[in-house]
Amino acid sequence: DKTCFPTPPVCAEAYNPDDDEDDDFEPRVVHPKSDEQRRRLQDACRDILLFKTLDQEQFSEVLDGMFEVLVKPQEHIIDQGDDGDNFYVIERGVYDIIVLIDGVGKCVGKYDNKGSFGELALMYNTPRAATIMANQEGALWGLDRATFHRLIVKNNAKKRKMYEAFIECVPLLKSLELSERMKIVDVVGMRVFRDGECILTQGDKADCFYIVESGEVKIMIISKTKAGQQGNAEVEIARCSRGQYFGELALVANKPRAASVYAMGVTKCLVIDIQAFERLLGSCKEIMKRNISQYENQLVALFGSSVDLKH
Ligand code: 1OR
Ligand code: 1OR
């Protein structure tokens, strides 16, 4: 076995009649966990986008395959240029993302007590694209390369088939190459919202971006003058439907959410996390900025002035 494990894993039977590739014959890896560990692991994995398109059975195999990793301040979990060994989900801790720019390591972002990293080298068989360093003591859950490949990378082929046609018709992504659009599909998560469900809340910290796949969303803003007697009443300022995006403003401007967004009817959205957004949608930012500059005009048209909405 080419993979190293911090604790000896138990191997369970791996036969799955639906599978058709060589790595299906790799034994299924199970790292036994206490109830308490499993609960913490499930919490940490709840919002991991890469797991959002797995079925129940695949997700539980992923959980079985994960092992706990405790890290110390300044520890490098990943070094840029290395071969990929594991994928990591963050349970707690703050981690710097460091990229060599002209030979000098620059901190280009952070993970703050949530998220995941280390998928790129495993997905594309490339050297590690960044260094990840713990800022403080922390806890991670690792998933070995072979299991990641068997469960996540194989699922990507299905994801590409499922979302290719849709992604092709998203106006924002028109300027990207096909291969770049497919890399977006590889890392998107899919979320379904109930009628009336709040997707994001004005004033919250932002860590992802959305594209509507089906259904519709309503964008609401707290207006001081329109609020009347009731205090913080929300007014509708826009809607988004299939192919349109929202949640970019906070990421582009590095500010809290400027509005709240609610599902109208059952609504399906593709979700992209902020690191993937920075990495893959950099070239789309100009288009977003142009559209953002229109927001202010629309605001004036709607309310006569934009001042009452500013905090
Ligand atoms: P990996 O297997 O290449 C390093 O190992 C990980 O850092 C990588 O997977 C991603 O999960 C994570 N560019 C490349 N990798 C990044 C980036 C990133 N951010 C996080 N990772 N950029 C920063 C975006 C904020 C672009 C930098 C130019
Ligand atoms: P966000 O990350 O700030 C809320 O989270 C999202 O609502 C925001 O990104 C935008 O995608 C969207 N017009 C259209 N869409 C808006 C507006 C807006 N504000 C936020 N979003 N404005 C003009 C109103 C006619 C308000 C500008 C402040």
Automatic annotation (TrEMBL):
Protein name (Swiss-Prot/TrEMBL): cAMP-dependent protein kinase type II-alpha regulatory subunit
Protein family according to the UniProt entry: Belongs to the cAMP-dependent kinase regulatory chain family.
Pfam families according to UniProt: cNMP_binding
Gene Ontology MF terms: cAMP binding; cAMP-dependent protein kinase inhibitor activity; protein kinase A catalytic subunit binding
Keywords: cAMP, cAMP-binding, Cell membrane, Cytoplasm, Membrane, Nucleotide-binding, Phosphoprotein, Repeat
Subcellular location: Cell membrane; Cytoplasm
Gene: PRKAR2A
PANTHER family recorded: CAMP-DEPENDENT PROTEIN KINASE REGULATORY CHAIN (PTHR11635), CAMP-DEPENDENT PROTEIN KINASE TYPE II-ALPHA REGULATORY SUBUNIT (PTHR11635:SF153)
Signal peptide: none
Presence of the UniProt keyword Ribonucleoprotein in the record: no
Annotated stretches, region: Disordered: 1-33
Positions contributing to 3',5'-cyclic AMP 1 binding: 119, 128
Domain Cyclic nucleotide-binding: 50-169, 172-298
Described purpose of this protein according to its UniProt entry: Regulatory subunit of the cAMP-dependent protein kinases involved in cAMP signaling in cells. Type II regulatory chains mediate membrane association by binding to anchoring proteins, including the MAP2 kinase.
UniProt binding sites for 3',5'-cyclic AMP 2: 248, 257
GO CC, alphabetical: cAMP-dependent protein kinase complex; cytosol; plasma membrane
Biased composition (Acidic residues): 16-25
Main location: membrane
InterPro entries recorded: cAMP-dep_PK_reg_su-like, cAMP_dep_PK_reg_su, cNMP-bd_CS, cNMP-bd_dom, cNMP-bd_dom_sf, RmlC-like_jellyroll
